[in-house]
Design goal:
Its cofactor is Mg(2+); Mn(2+). This is 3-isopropylmalate dehydrogenase. By secondary structure, the protein is α/β, with parallel strands linked by helices. The chain folds into 2 domains: about 190 residues, Isopropylmalate Dehydrogenase (3-Layer(aba) Sandwich); about 170 residues, Isopropylmalate Dehydrogenase (3-Layer(aba) Sandwich), CATH 3.40.718. Helices cover about 40% and strands about 20% of the residues. A 10-stranded mixed beta sheet has the order 2-1-3-12-11-4-5-10-8-9, sandwiched between helices. Strands 6-7 form a two-stranded antiparallel ribbon. Strand 6 and strand 7 form a beta hairpin. Helix 1 crosses helix 10 and helix 1 packs parallel to helix 12. The relative contact order is 0.16.
Length: about 375
C-alpha cells in the first residue's frame, strides 16, 4: 500500500536535510519494494514570505491527508522582528496543535564512535540510552490569556500555564506504556513544590501508575532533574514531563551526545499522522553551504518507518547504516574539528551506500 508523506522543508538548513531524507526514502523504496508518495508544503519563515502566514491552510490540509509528516526546521533572524503570533515558530506550534500531536518522543543515545564529542566524561555517558516524553500541546506555550498591558503605569507581560487532567493522563499513560516496553522505569519530572499544575500532574501519575504494576516510577523536581542529567544520566530510562520542562531538558540531554545534529524526534497523536523532525534548529549561519549534518533527520526517518508504518526491519537497517558510517570515522563539520569532513550530500551518500550493503548482505 502506498504511504503518503508530507515533506515540510521550512527554513535555513531544513531544505538540505529534507533533501537528504527524500533520497534515503527513495532508496528504501527501491530496496524493500515500498511505495512512498511525497508531497511538499510550506511552513515557517519561507511561508510567511510566500503566503503571509507561517502555516497556510494548504499545508495543514496536506498534513491531515498524509500518513506521516517530515519537518526540516523553522525560524531565523530574518523574521525575528515580527510579533510573536506571526513568527515562523507559530507555524510549528499551530501544526502540533491542529494535528493533536500531544506526545513528543526524544531518544538520547550515545553513539560509541562519538563518545569523544561529548563534554561529559566517558565513565558518565557510557551506556546512556534514555527517552524523554514531552507533553506537546498544553502548558505555558498554549495557555491563555497571553498579553501585555499597563497596570498602574507599569508594563507587565502575562503568560498562563494551564493543564487539564485529561491532557496529563494522556501523556503519562503513553510514557508508562513506553517504559514498559523498555527497561521498566519511569521518572516523572515536575515542580510540585511550587506549581499547582505540577501538583495535579503528580496526582495523575500516582493514579495511572496503578495500571502499570510492572513499571517502577519516581518523581523528581525539574531543577534536580537538570542536575542529574549531567551528573548521572544512566539512572534514567524514560522521563515524562510537561511542555516547557521537556523542551529545556531535552535540549540539555542532547548535549550528552555532543551535538544537536545527532538527535531525532517524533511527535505522535492518538490516531492521526505523526510528525518527525530533528531537534536542531534552522542554523541560518550554515544554510546553503552544504555543511548541515543530515543524521538527525535520517534518524527521524527511521522513527517514522517504525512508528507510522510498522516497518521495523527498514527502520533498524537505516539506524544500523547511520551507526556504520560513524564507526568508519565519517563526520560532518559539527562532529569534529578536522578539516577533512563530509558535506551534507556526501554523508547522505555514505548512509545510502551502507543501506545498500546491509540489504545485499541480508539477502
Amino acid at each position: 500500500m502506498k504511504k503518503r508523506i508530507a515533506i515540510l522543508p521550512g527554513d535555513g538548513i531544513g531544505p538540505e536535510v529534507c533533501e537528504a531524507a527524500t533520497r534515503v526514502l527513495k532508496e528504501i523504496e527501491a530496496l524493500y519494494q515500498h511505495e512512498f508518495e511525497l508531497i511538499y508544503g510550506d511552513i515557517g519563515g519561507i511561508s510567511i514570505d510566500k503566503n503571509g502566514t507561517p502555516l497556510p491552510q494548504e499545508t495543514l490540509s496536506a498534513c491531515r491527508q498524509s500518513d506521516a509528516v517530515l519537518l526540516g526546521a523553522v525560524g531565523g533572524p530574518k523574521w525575528d522582528q515580527l510579533p510573536g503570533d506571526q513568527r515562523p515558530e507559530k507555524g510549528l506550534l499551530g501544526l502540533r496543535k491542529e494535528l493533536q500531536l500531544f506526545a513528543n518522543l526524544r531518544p538520547v543515545t550515545i553513539y560509541d564512535a562519538l563518545a569523544d564529542s561529548s563534554p561529559l566524561k566517558d565513565e558518565i555517558i557510557q551506556g546512556v540510552e534514555l527517552l524523554i516524553v514531552r507533553e506537546l500541546t498544553g502548558g505555558l506555550y498554549f495557555g491563555e490569556p497571553r498579553e501585555r498591558k499597563i497596570v498602574d503605569g507599569e508594563e507587565i507581560a502575562i503568560d498562563t500555564l494551564q493543564y487539564s487532567r485529561f491532557e496529563i493522563e494522556r501523556i503519562v499513560r503513553k510514557a508508562f506504556q513506553l517504559a514498559g516496553e523498555r527497561r521498566g522505569h519511569l521518572t516523572s519530572v515536575d515542580k510540585a513544590n511550587v506549581l499547582e499544575s505540577s501538583r495535579l500532574w503528580r496526582e495523575v501519575v500516582e493514579e495511572v501508575a496503578k495500571d502499570f504494576p510492572n513499571v517502577d516510577y519516581s518523581h523528581m523536581l525539574v531543577d534536580n532533574a537538570a542536575m542529574q542529567l549531567v551528573r548521572n544520566p544512566r539512572q534514567f530510562d524514560v522521563i515524562v514531563t510537561e511542555n516547557m520542562f521537556g523542551d529545556i531538558l531535552s535540549d540539555e540531554a542532547s548535549m550528552i551526545t555532543g551535538s544537536l545534529g545527532m538527535l531525532p524526534s517524533s511527535s505522535l497523536s492518538e490516531d492521526g499522522p505523526g510528525l518527525f523532525e530533528p531537534i536542531h534548529g534552522s542554523a541560518p549561519d550554515i544554510a546553503g553551504k552544504g555543511l548541515a549534518n543530515p543524521l538527525a533527520t535520517l534518524s527521524s526517518v527511521a522513527m517514522m518507518l517504525a512508528y507510522s508504518f510498522d516497518l521495523y526491519d527498514e527502520a533498524t537497517s537505516l539506524q544500523d547504516a547511520i551507526n556504520e558510517v560513524l564507526n568508519k570515522g565519517y563526520r560532518t563539520a559539527d562532529l569534529t574539528n578536522d578539516s577533512n569532513t563530509l558535506s551534507t550530500i556526501q554523508m547522505t551518500d555514505k548512509v545510502i551506500e551502507a543501506l545498500q550493503n546491509n540489504k545485499q548482505n541480508a539477502s
